[in-house]
Structure formats: structure tokens, C-alpha cells
Amino acid sequence: MISRVLVPMDDSEMSEKALRYALEAYPDAEVTVLHVVGEPSPMMGQAVRLALEDDIQKTAEELAEALLDRAREIAAEYDAEIETQVGWGSPAKVIVSRAESFDAVVIGSHGGSLAEQLFVGNVAQKVFRRSPVPVTTVR
Length: 139
Prior knowledge:
By secondary structure, the chain is of the alpha/beta class. It has one domain (4-138): HUPs (Rossmann fold, 3-Layer(aba) Sandwich). The protein has 6 helices and 5 strands; from the N terminus they run βαβααβαβααβ. It has helices at residues 13-25, 45-51, 56-77, 91-99, 114-120, 123-130, and strands at 4-8, 30-37, 83-88, 104-108, 135-138. The chain has a 5-stranded parallel beta sheet with strand order 3-2-1-4-5, sandwiched between helices. Helix 4 (91-99) runs parallel beside helix 6 (123-130).
């Protein structure tokens, strides 16, 4: 029985679809939305901004708040409550490391811009290959 579901989210339409799928497929499960802020690199402006901050965790949470508010709005449409988490680092690594505390992961098939997909790699594919729990990919 699936009682705890992890839904990684970025600001893409696919991640919103993944959250909707999780809420529909597992209406009685505890759903946790995870937003991962990437490690600093020249291609990732938000992560570079974080690297310059004194309190990285606090700044990451502030940057993620709008996305997590959107996730809460979606959950409210299903008369559900969700937990939210913010991570820092390589998105696939953070998702896989946290997945072991859940029964399943529901992730959007792709997200972000084409440039982010080319430079960062396919997060969903990495999670699918490395996750210690079943992964559902939504498109």
C-alpha cells in the first residue's frame, strides 16, 4: 500500500501534472512536494544568487515559496493538504536520497527550459534509474 508519496516540483507544467496525478491516484496518501534548488554554476542564475547569500537555506526557501504556494493551491482543488520541503544541490541526487523515506515518487517527465534540460540533464530519467522506490513518470 502506498501511504507516502514524494512529488518533486519545479516551475513546469509537467510537475504540476505530476502533483495532480499523485493527488488523484493516491487520495489517502501523505503527499510531500519537494523543490530542489540546484548547485551553483554559470548557467543557473538562481543557484548563483544562493551561493552569494549568507543563509543559503533561508534564501532557497524564500525563492521556492511561490512554487510551493502553487502546489498548495493545486492540493486545495483536491481538498487535500500536502507537506513541502526545499532541498539544495543536484536535483536528481537530492530526490533519490530523499526517496528512501517514501513508498513512491511521482515526477513530471521533463521540466524547465530546453537549455536547462541540455545542461542539467534529464532529472526524471536519473531518478527513474536510481530511485530505491517505484517511480511514476507523468507527461
